[in-house]
């Protein structure tokens, strides 16, 4: 910390994850490339976080993620002002705050990086929610650019043959759409390569997350929230494979040297739902002060959750199922099973659920998941009612009281 | 008017009605959500399709659904958990929106109301592959209904149900048109009761009653020009009959709507040639879409403008449920389109009950005061 | 012709007499429990103060929350329409009105004739209304009439982020416990109310000149906060609280 009169705390320094610096560089370059795309003649696509980015990589289109931008807006504490602006535009305050913030950003180039680059096309996959459909319709009207919708039917109790046929058909339509917008044919050999890189990246990400099963965990969910960005945005590139290879090595080194995310880890917790982007540090420190570490979460693991459905030697063919059966596109009971698997894998003592006003598919059903977890594993659950980007929905002293009370229960138990 | 009492009675106490039908005729009752449910198939199987709405209470839903979900899902779940829907032999959940989607899971886990069918209809309605998928889903739905009810649906039964529904929808459309030309013949609150009852009534009886009603209205004398300002209502589910009375008491004349519980419910005829299931699918694909579905970027806006122009409406009142994401996302562009045509509009978000302090009345009056005569 | 406008609000009842298009007299009383009685009382008061007989009045319009309980009124018209007409009378150039009352807030845009073109209301939630300020005044143990003056002296307005009045109150209590200065807290409260109302008004697209009406208009701190949030200068008439009644009396002339 140059220029600072205080000498840096060597303990804290040791605990810091070194790869963070590299990640920041990569993301900065990525956004710069996206914002100068007009000059380099590359096309820009806005795509949903659960959307199939691999074909975009194959076609040399720069993928941009309004949701990732939303997270940045939240983290820079610019969410409230942008949400207020969207309400002035007529959007209800009850709508998803990612959507509200992004819709407000576009006309004013607001947000922490002066707005996202104009899209040449929009790609919307509704596997994460129905809101993205409406959000992308708004942006399609605003930017007047072609919109492709990948409709991935919901799997309440299983993935139907009808759905498989439908989604597979749409994958071909998607490629045709990209070919039309770009005016060039898709290179299927490259597609196979990118598919393999995507699978490799996902496996590495899973391996990184797996390191937190170690006691004590070398990284926490809050670290995962940060390092998640690459597997979401640039999945299918070698940049992602290289980065996570490095990060995995660092985690193994930390384990070997006895460096943990929380200095005195006594309680291991599982986080459910999206992060509270404007309070990740506050929450991390609050739990750490109680010697608690959020060792894993259901959100970041969603970007390697489809590995079981994807065949790396037939990426295009198995993509349909892989993208359809993600964590948010399955029944509440199946989600509860996943939560219990994670509790067992990471040996969690408690579950922390963020009841996120902005996200109905993630939040509605949490009460039942909570009940199932309590029945089957008898561990305490903490419910935090807030929002991922709109800080007006975060009541600090009420939440503080809940966290303290939860930790008291854990400690007594 | 002779028939209206029956419609009002059924609209007011649908649960009692359904239980009575079940007791007297032995017919099974299949509950469903959403106007995308292919009722024709349920009817062809010999069961009574019964559309579910909440009845005003929602406290039992608190254990399963956060407060930021709409009163339709909360109210329906409350009813189910309280045992109020125990008379159902099965429930159908078509894919509508995120909230209905999760309600289905929560219902499946916590409630026993007979068999449980998810009909995961496409969200896209404007492509060839989504049309094919829609037909595939309906074919599967047919098999699921057969299994759930323990019957086989013959091609003739299906054809016969389709023709029945075509008649029902045609009469409802006719009644709407008669009213638009002559609002004094029948109140909009009455119209609401008729459509509401149509969603739970024995469909054979319904056809007869609607035919008689349409006939008697046709013979009704035109009472001359009705005082008041013409408005069109736009939105989703509107299950609060008082809203219609308040609008009319405030000096408005409702000359049309695009409600899910109104004209969108009965729009569209089904062809009876060729594959019947595919024809049914086509009707659900082609009618004006709910905002939870995608069928072009400006389709709904153009439809509402057309509705306003053709009916001579001076303003549009948007009414949809609080926490309804699809409708809330559409609202700004719809208002914008209306503004550009010089058509004033107002929004009121509905919850399970109207606020007690007359807030809706004040807004309504203020809006109507704004409009030209 | 002499006409009368009666505005029965949740906290005060107002009356205005207009003769040949000119304001003759006004009166204000506390509404109390019974809005019907309040209507009668303020009617009696204005007649005696103006020295006018009941029979001399050509038309009576009632407005406000209690408008339908004013039995002697010829017609009841909403306060939206009346505030627009009243504001137009006070300044014909005005094109937008912001009214923050005891239990709701509204924004109105009007045409050159004072007729309402569009409006937006917050009538479901206490935050952004006079009630919000009352709750805060109690929590701070400050006379609400001092709010305006005190907030102007703030050197570092506090940030109050809660959307809900109840939670905002607990935020204020936390700030007091942390030793935050009252004037800064009050400024923060005004910013909060300003944000809420400005966002609602923003949906309409405010056009200058903008006038603020209603009881809360007397609070210079809120006016300044609104100016900051909307980016537009806001005028306040001395007759702010009577705008509804004046508008009602004017409308009575056209009936």
| Proper CATH architecture of the domain at 4-152 in chain B | 3-Layer(aba) Sandwich
Shape of chain A: globular
Order of helices and strands of chain B: HHEHEHEHEHHHHEHEHHHEHEH
Largest interface: A-B, 48 and 50 residues
Beta-strand content estimate of chain A: 5-15%
- Average per-residue pLDDT of chain A, rounded, comes to 95
Q: State the secondary-structure class of chain A.
A: alpha/beta
Short summary:
The complex is a heterotrimer of chains A (413), B (373) and C (255). With 413 residues, chain A is of the alpha/beta class. Chain A has helices spanning 10-15, 19-35, 37-40, 54-58, 66-75, 79-88, 97-108, 131-143, 161-182, 188-210, 221-227, 229-233, 238-257, 280-289, 315-324, 332-346, 360-363, 366-377, 396-412; strands at 44-47, 62-64, 121-125, 147-150, 267-272, 292-297, 350-356, 381-386.
What keywords describe this structure?
A: 413 residues, alpha/beta, Rossmann fold, 2 domains, four-stranded parallel beta sheet, 8 strands, C: 255 residues, Nucleotidyltransferase, domain 5, five-stranded mixed beta sheet, globular
Structure explained in plain terms:
The complex is a heterotrimer of chains A (413), B (373) and C (255). Chain A is α/β, with parallel strands linked by helices and 413 residues long. Chain A has 19 helices and eight strands. In chain A, helix 2 runs antiparallel to helix 13 and helix 9 crosses helix 15. The longest helix of chain A is centred in the middle third of the chain and has 23 residues. The mean pLDDT of chain A is 95. Chain B is of the alpha/beta class. In chain B, the strands form two sheets. In chain B, strands 2-1-3-4 form a four-stranded parallel sheet, sandwiched between helices. In chain B, strands 6-5-7-8 form a four-stranded parallel sheet, with helices on both faces. Chain C is an alpha/beta fold and 255 residues long. Chain C has two domains: 109 residues, Nucleotidyltransferase, domain 5 (2-Layer Sandwich); 144 residues, 2-Layer Sandwich (Nucleotidyltransferase, domain 5), CATH 3.30.420. Chain C is globular, with a radius of gyration of 19 Å. Chains in contact: A-B, A-C, B-C. Chains A and B meet through helix 8, helix 9, helix 17 and helix 18 of A and helix 5, helix 6 and helix 14 of B.
């Amino acid at each position: 910390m140059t220029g600072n009169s205080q000498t840096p705390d060597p303990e804290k320094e040791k605990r810091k994850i070194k790869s963070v610096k590299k990640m920041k560089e990569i993301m900065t370059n990525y956004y710069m490339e996206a914002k100068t795309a007009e000059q380099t003649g590359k096309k820009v696509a806005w795509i949903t976080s659960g959307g199939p980015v691999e074909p975009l990589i194959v076609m040399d289109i720069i993928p941009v993620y309004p949701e990732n931008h939303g997270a940045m807006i939240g983290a820079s504490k610019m969410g409230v002002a942008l949400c207020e602006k969207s309400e002035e535009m007529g959007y209800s305050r009850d709508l998803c705050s990612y959507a509200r913030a992004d819709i407000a950003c576009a006309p004013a180039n607001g947000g922490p990086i002066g707005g996202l680059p104009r899209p040449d096309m929009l790609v919307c996959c509704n596997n994460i929610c129905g809101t993205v459909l409406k959000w992308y319709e708004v942006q399609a009207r605003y930017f007047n650019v072609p919109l492709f919708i990948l409709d991935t039917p919901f799997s309440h109790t299983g993935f139907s043959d009808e759905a498989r046929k439908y989604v597979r058909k749409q994958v071909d339509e998607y490629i045709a759409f990209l070919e039309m917008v770009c005016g060039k044919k898709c290179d299927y050999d490259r597609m196979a390569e990118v598919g393999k890189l995507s699978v490799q990246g996902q496996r590495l990400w899973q391996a990184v997350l797996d390191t937190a099963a170690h006691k004590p965990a070398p990284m926490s969910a809050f670290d995962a929230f940060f390092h998640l960005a690459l597997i979401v945005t640039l999945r299918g590139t070698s940049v992602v494979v290289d980065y996570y290879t490095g990060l995995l090595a660092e985690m193994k080194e930390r384990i070997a040297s006895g460096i943990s995310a929380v200095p005195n880890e006594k309680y291991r917790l599982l986080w459910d739902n999206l992060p509270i982007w404007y309070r990740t540090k506050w929450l991390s420190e609050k739990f750490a002060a109680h010697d608690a570490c959020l060792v894993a979460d259901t959100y970041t693991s969603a970007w390697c959750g489809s590995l079981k459905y994807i065949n790396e030697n037939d990426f295009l063919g198995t993509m349909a199922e892989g993208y359809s059966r993600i964590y948010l596109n399955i029944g509440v009971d199946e989600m509860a099973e996943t939560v219990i698997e994670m509790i067992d894998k990471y040996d969690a003592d408690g579950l922390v659920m963020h009841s996120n006003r902005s996200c109905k598919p993630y939040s509605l059903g949490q009460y039942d998941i909570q009940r199932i977890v309590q029945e089957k594993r008898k561990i305490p659950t903490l419910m935090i009612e807030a929002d991922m980007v709109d800080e007006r929905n975060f009541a600090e002293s009420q939440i503080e009281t809940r966290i303290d009370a939860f930790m008291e229960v854990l400690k007594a138990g | 008017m002779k028939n209206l009492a029956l419609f009002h009675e059924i609209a007011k106490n649908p649960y009692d009605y359904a239980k009575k039908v079940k007791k007297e005729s032995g017919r099974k009752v299949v509950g469903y959500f959403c106007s995308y449910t292919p009722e024709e198939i349920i009817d062809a199987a010999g069961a009574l399709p019964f559309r579910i709405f909440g009845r005003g209470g929602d406290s039992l839903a608190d254990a399963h659904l956060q407060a930021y979900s709409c009163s339709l899902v909360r109210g329906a779940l409350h009813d189910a958990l309280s045992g109020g829907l125990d008379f159902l032999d099965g429930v159908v959940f078509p894919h509508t929106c995120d909230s209905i989607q999760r309600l289905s899971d929560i219902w499946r886990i916590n409630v026993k109301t007979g068999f449980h069918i998810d009909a995961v209809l496409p969200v896209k309605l404007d492509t060839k592959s989504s049309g094919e998928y829609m037909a595939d889903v309906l074919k599967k739905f047919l098999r699921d209904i057969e299994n759930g009810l323990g019957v086989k649906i013959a091609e003739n039964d299906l054809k016969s149900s389709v023709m029945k529904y075509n008649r029902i929808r045609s009469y409802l459309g006719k009644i709407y048109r008669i009213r638009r030309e002559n609002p004094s013949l029948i109140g909009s609150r009455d119209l609401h009761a008729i459509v509401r009852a149509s969603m739970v009534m024995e469909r054979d009886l319904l056809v007869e009653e609607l035919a008689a009603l349409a006939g008697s209205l046709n013979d009704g004398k035109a009472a001359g020009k009705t005082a008041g300002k013409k408005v069109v209502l736009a939105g989703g589910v509107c299950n609060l009959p008082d809203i219609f009375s308040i609008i009319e008491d405030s000096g408005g004349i409702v000359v049309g709507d695009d409600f899910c519980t109104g004209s969108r419910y009965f729009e569209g005829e089904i062809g009876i040639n060729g594959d019947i299931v595919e024809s049914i699918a086509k009707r659900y694909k082609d009618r004006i879409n709910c905002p939870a579905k995608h069928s072009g970027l400006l389709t709904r806006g153009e439809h509402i403008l057309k509705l306003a122009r053709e009916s001579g409406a001076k303003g549009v009142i948007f009414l949809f449920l609080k926490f309804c994401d699809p409708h809330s996302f559409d609202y700004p562009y719809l208002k914008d389109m209306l503004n550009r045509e010089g058509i004033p509009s107002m929004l009121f978000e509905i919850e399970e009950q109207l606020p007690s302090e007359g807030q809706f009345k004040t807004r309504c009056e203020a809006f109507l005061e704004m409009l030209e005569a | 012709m002499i006409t009368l406008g009666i505005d029965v609000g949740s906290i005060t009842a107002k009356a205005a007499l207009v003769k040949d298009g000119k304001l003759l007299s006004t009166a204000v009383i506390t509404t109390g429990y019974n809005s019907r009685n309040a209507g009668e009382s303020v009617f009696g008061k204005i007649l005696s103060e103006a020295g006018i007989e009941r029979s001399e009045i050509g038309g009576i319009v009632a407005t406000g929350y209690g408008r339908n309980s004013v039995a002697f009124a010829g017609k009841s018209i909403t306060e939206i329409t009346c505030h627009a007409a009243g504001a137009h009378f006070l300044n014909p150039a005005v094109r937008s009105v912001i009214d923050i009352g005891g239990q709701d807030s509204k924004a109105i845009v009007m045409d050159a004739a004072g007729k309402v073109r569009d409006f937006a209301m917050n009538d479901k939630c206490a935050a952004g209304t006079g009630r919000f300020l009352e709750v805060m005044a109690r929590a701070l143990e400050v006379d609400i009439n001092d709010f305006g003056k005190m907030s102007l002296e703030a050197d570092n307005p506090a940030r109050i982020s809660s959307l809900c009045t109840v939670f905002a109150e607990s935020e204020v209590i936390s700030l007091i416990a942390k030793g935050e200065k009252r004037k800064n807290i009050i400024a923060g409260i005004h910013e909060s109310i300003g944000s809420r109302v400005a966002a609602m008004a923003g949906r309409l697209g405010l056009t200058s000149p903008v006038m603020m009406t209603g009881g809360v208009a007397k609070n210079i701190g809120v006016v300044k906060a609104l100016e900051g949030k909307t980016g537009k200068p806001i005028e306040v008439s001395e007759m702010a609280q009577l705008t509804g009644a004046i508008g009602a009396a004017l409308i009575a002339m056209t009936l």
